[in-house]
Amino acid sequence: MLTISAVIVEDEIPVAKSLETLLDQNDKVNVLGMAHNVIDARKMILEKKPDLVFCDIQLGKSETGFDLIEQFPEASFKLIFVTAFNEYAIKAFKYSAIDYLLKPVDPEELEEALKRTCKKIEFEEPQKEIQSLIQMMKNPSDKPKKILFKTSEQIKAVDVSSIIRLESESNYTSVYLNDGKKLLVSKSLKEYSDILEERYFFRSHQSHLINLEFFDVYEKNDGGYIKLTDGTTVPVSKRKKSLLFELLESI
């Protein structure tokens, strides 16, 4: 793993020092400094030019990490948010494929986040995530039309309406699109279920999430299954059948 430089943006000094201590235990990370508000953080980032910024969401009573990130729409640095639980913010991170850590920071999760960041830096991946996140936070009432998927080779922006279905494959998820393409991403199906079920997607089975826009027919044979417009069939678990019928009646 290559050595990366980092800046910590956190208004609570004990929390910032705790994260710094964890990072100091990793000889591949060089912490350049800490900032506790947006003005100081912006100045430090411009001066130090870090590879990575750890940023809290809430910075004092009136500022947020989003106020800072909006000032870097073409950011050259990678970003990891460190936050207490915030349902909407976490949903935004998942849509935009931004890395985040929950407080208190777990050392193993931190290590995994650092590995992902090093991979992005090594392959010079463009920072599409920040632009996507900024757009979503500016329009919190809008449901995003696109979602970012990270494969081993790229970060791809996909129209939500073009997703036919998602299928769990061990610790990976296969995403099937209406142009016949398939993406393999290293996130669980549950993560996508959490953010897509409000977008007319239905978790028919523990291994399947489908876009009901591509629903064709429900067959009662063989325990019950759904046939999609691309000819694919997916099973429906017993406990999901009543919910499916309710959804179909609302179409």
Account of the 3D structure:
The protein is of the alpha/beta class and 251 residues long. 33% of the residues lie in helices and 32% in strands. The chain has helices at 13-24, 38-48, 65-69, 87-96, 107-122, 128-138, 189-196, 241-249, and strands at 4-9, 29-35, 52-56, 58-59, 63-64, 78-83, 99-102, 146-150, 155-159, 163-169, 172-177, 182-185, 201-205, 208-211, 215-219, 225-228, 233-235. The strands form five sheets. A five-stranded parallel beta sheet has the order 2-1-3-6-7, with helices on both faces. Strand 1, helix 1 and strand 2 form a beta-alpha-beta unit. The longest helix has 16 residues, at 107-122.
Number of helices: 8
Tell me the helix content: 25-40%
Secondary structure class reads alpha/beta
- Strand arrangement in the largest pleated sheet: 2-1-3-6-7
Fold blueprint:
Layout: E1 4-9, H1 13-24, E2 29-35, H2 38-48, E3 52-56, E4 58-59, E5 63-64, H3 65-69, E6 78-83, H4 87-96, E7 99-102, H5 107-122, H6 128-138, E8 146-150, E9 155-159, E10 163-169, E11 172-177, E12 182-185, H7 189-196, E13 201-205, E14 208-211, E15 215-219, E16 225-228, E17 233-235, H8 241-249
Parallel strand pairs: 1-2, 1-3, 3-6, 6-7
Antiparallel strand pairs: 4-5, 8-9, 10-11, 10-14, 11-12, 13-14, 15-16, 16-17
Give a quick rundown of the structure.
With 251 residues, the chain is an alpha/beta fold. The chain is 33% helix and 32% strand. The protein has 8 helices and 17 strands.
Tags for this entry?
OB fold (Dihydrolipoamide Acetyltransferase, E2P); five-stranded antiparallel β-sheet; Rossmann fold
